[in-house]
Description:
The complex is a heterodimer of chains A (100) and B (136).
Chain A: H1 3-6, H2 10-22, H3 28-34, H4 44-54, E1 57-60, E2 74-77, H5 79-90, H6 96-99
Antiparallel strand pairs in A: 1-2
Helix pairs in contact in A: 2-5
Chain B: H1 31-47, H2 64-70, H3 73-96, H4 100-135
Helix pairs in contact in B: 3-4
Amino acid sequence: MDNGKSWPSGKELEVLRLLQSAGSGMYGLELVEKSHGAIGRASIYVYLSRLEEKGFVAVKRPTTADHPGMPRPIYRINGLGAKALEAAEMVGMIRQGARS
Amino acid sequence: MNDMFDDEPEDDPTTRLSLTEPVNGTSFASPKWYLKGRMLQYLIRLADGKKPMRLARPPKLIWSWLAQKLMSPAQYRRLCEPHIADMHAQYFECISRRDWKGARWAVIRGNLYAIPSWVWGAVASILLWVKHWLTA
């Protein structure tokens, strides 16, 4: 892993922490609600997209939904993401203010 | 007297409009018949004095065509499609509650919240393309 390029940023770590606390998969809007204003709806998919590119998050895109529109993707932290979060907490990268 | 009607075509039952069966090989799955059916439903409900039924078609992002041109397909799938999916979920939730105003707001909010994502994706795609062009 290229540390300079692939290490998650502060907000991305916050997203990882929320995903880990949920245990099961979550929708993007659920993450926004659980963050209590720390992460906005406009930027959540930017963070999730970066985390997906870096390999910290697994995404499941269902083929069908319970409504006629497009189904929502479900995000889940994977093993690499859990390790990155654990390492970040050990070195104190997550700021106390961001936890709220 | 009968000669007057010779020029008119015979009343072929297969050419009549049917609400239950396709006519002359056309299918109700075709857009023409779909729209006719929905308009008929709308008019019947209007004549009954009930509130007309809304046409529940999934809304689209206004600028998705531009985002599709500027972004790579993978970025579009990661950045724009989740916004569309959220908008659809909220829209149909409001429709099921017959909350028309809420449904309209869900579409407006969905379009507004998607802007930073697709702008970010478009800028990233352009920068990648410039980087590729400079290094080539």
